[in-house]
Write a structure and sequence with these properties.
The chain is an alpha/beta fold. It contains two helices and seven strands; from the N terminus they run βαββββββα. The chain starts with 7 loop residues before the first strand and ends with a helix.
Length: 76
Amino acid sequence: MRNLDGFRVAALATDGFEESELLEPMKALTDSGARVFVISPKKGKSRQPFMTATKGQRLKLTVRLTTQMLKTTMPC
């Protein structure tokens, strides 16, 4: 992957996501220099992923996604 120094990436997560589908791309992005922010539409400090059929480690959220954020950042 190319150098991503200075890039900011938002990863959207909610309860029940497949752990490897978020953590592996996050690792690749951070290893390439990007800052990755985990956002969620739910309140709380972490989201519970799944590893196939079992629960994985809780993931700390960086930002809570709100409807206001979508209204101000999405060109509609």
